[in-house]
Amino acid sequence: FSQNSDFFLRILTLKSELKKKFTCGCRYVSKAAPKTQLEYDYDGPSMKTSVPGPRSQNVGAVNFFCNYEESRGNYLVDVDNNRMLDVYTQISSIPIGYNHPALLKLMANPNHLSTLVNRPALGILPPENFPDKLTESLLSVSPSGMTRVQTMACGSCSNENAYKAMFIWYRNKERGHNMPSDEDVSTCMINKAPGCPDLSILSFNGGFHGRTMGCLATTHSKAIHKLDVPSFDWPMAPFPRLQYPLEEFTRENAQEEARCLEETEDVIVKWRQKGNPVAGIVIEPIQAEGGDNHASPDFFKGLRNIARKHGCAFHVDEVQTGGGATGKYWAHEHWGMDDPADIVSFSKKLLTGGYYHKDELQPYRIFNTWMGDPSKNLLLAEVLNVIRRENLLEEVTRSGKALLNGLYDLQAQYPGILSRARGQGTFCAIDICDDATRNSILLKARDKGVLLGGCGDRSIRFRPALIFKEYHVHIFLNIFNDVLAEHK
Ligand SMILES: Cc1ncc(COP(=O)(O)O)c(C=O)c1O
């Protein structure tokens, strides 16, 4: 274990190293939010070159190469030693920042080495402590009404398998039992009904559920994801397009949501009539890739009822929204329902993929080699400890308010550029006047030391880690303001 103990020593000296190395002044300290520096975080961005810098040039689709050893807390460092405040966090997938001391300490524990080195085929040969680790991690934050979880490797394979579980459930419901007929068995081998039944998953305009074949058939955010790939003939319903500010458009938005619910029900009826019934409905609580589109709790309650009424399973895709960024572990908790869904899928901030499900959606025939990764559950259990110990969900709510208020102010200051500031917790977004300006703002912000992401046609999305405090919000707003001033 000599290498491992060296590693451990490095962590113990991390604090003093940080103090020695990074005593540079912060570019902006809000008076409203006094800085309570995280001991493992940097003071602020520090840019040596524009990004990508010389060591990252000519890298095709890759934005730039990173130095993960030097990245800390809310800051991502690149190979040219540029240190950027990360408000995008690896497409919303870093829960508690880079190199969190609690996670480094956990990984330095020799007792965890075998979990890191030996990746099991979890479906047949799980480690003895796997059920306990699930109880400590994923099951400790189960959505309301769900006590079962199936782990998977990524967001797409979680959704892909969740769809399969919904189809199997639907067919068993139709049969009245779970014993397939001889005809079912023989026809499925040649891709024909009834073994491979004509059933569909209903999804929403602007939704994103991944890029594997089934998921892609339910993804409708950008043509580039779907182009040239054959798809299933599955229905799509409209997702509400809300007008902002919400308080000025209460009536119009309620009408828009009522229209979408009505059309959804019509689509379900039509598809049953045409012999391709809807077995399941999949929806994101906030459409993320599609442009951070929100809808009210009433809309989701209405949809849940429609699913129940027509015997469709209701799948809430929390791959991007789950894990705390909205101020709750699950965005659907904001709907205030006891029975919000039949399936809730996750990945990203939960570090492992997977889905929670009701007892009736037993995954008997859901299987692949890895079915997740126990080392990720180990990390997740510690991430959840940190979230609880440091009250990070409350912090997110506080930082989220500061972020949204800051965006409202900037929107008032730059009405020609910004509109539709919106968000829940730190899961926020704002629209830019056009796609070209949006892209230019993203690049300029990056050169000034702030990493942001785009979504939809012309939105910028904010996806910081859960350790993004109010003073980080103000560092960000200050730089964002500088960038906007250049576009005025
Ligand atoms: C809501 C949603 N579902 C599914 C996925 C697919 O996850 P993955 O990229 O891990 O396959 C994403 C990815 O961004 C997502 O945002």
From TrEMBL:
<dbReference type="InterPro" id="IPR049704">
    <property type="entry name" value="Aminotrans_3_PPA_site"/>
</dbReference>
<dbReference type="GO" id="GO:0047298">
    <property type="term" value="F:(S)-3-amino-2-methylpropionate transaminase activity"/>
</dbReference>
<dbReference type="InterPro" id="IPR004631">
    <property type="entry name" value="4NH2But_aminotransferase_euk"/>
</dbReference>
<comment type="subunit">
    <text>Homodimer; disulfide-linked.</text>
</comment>
<keyword id="KW-0032">Aminotransferase</keyword>
<protein>
    <recommendedName>
        <fullName>4-aminobutyrate aminotransferase, mitochondrial</fullName>
        <ecNumber>2.6.1.19</ecNumber>
        <ecNumber>2.6.1.22</ecNumber>
    </recommendedName>
</protein>
<comment type="similarity">
    <text>Belongs to the class-III pyridoxal-phosphate-dependent aminotransferase family.</text>
</comment>
<dbReference type="InterPro" id="IPR015421">
    <property type="entry name" value="PyrdxlP-dep_Trfase_major"/>
</dbReference>
<dbReference type="GO" id="GO:0005739">
    <property type="term" value="C:mitochondrion"/>
</dbReference>
<dbReference type="InterPro" id="IPR015424">
    <property type="entry name" value="PyrdxlP-dep_Trfase"/>
</dbReference>
<keyword id="KW-0808">Transferase</keyword>
<comment type="function">
    <text>Catalyzes the conversion of gamma-aminobutyrate and L-beta-aminoisobutyrate to succinate semialdehyde and methylmalonate semialdehyde, respectively. Can also convert delta-aminovalerate and beta-alanine.</text>
</comment>
<dbReference type="InterPro" id="IPR015422">
    <property type="entry name" value="PyrdxlP-dep_Trfase_small"/>
</dbReference>
<keyword id="KW-0663">Pyridoxal phosphate</keyword>
<keyword id="KW-0531">Neurotransmitter degradation</keyword>
<dbReference type="GO" id="GO:0009450">
    <property type="term" value="P:gamma-aminobutyric acid catabolic process"/>
</dbReference>
<dbReference type="GO" id="GO:0030170">
    <property type="term" value="F:pyridoxal phosphate binding"/>
</dbReference>
<dbReference type="Pfam" id="PF00202">
    <property type="entry name" value="Aminotran_3"/>
</dbReference>
<dbReference type="InterPro" id="IPR005814">
    <property type="entry name" value="Aminotrans_3"/>
</dbReference>
<dbReference type="GO" id="GO:0034386">
    <property type="term" value="F:4-aminobutyrate:2-oxoglutarate transaminase activity"/>
</dbReference>
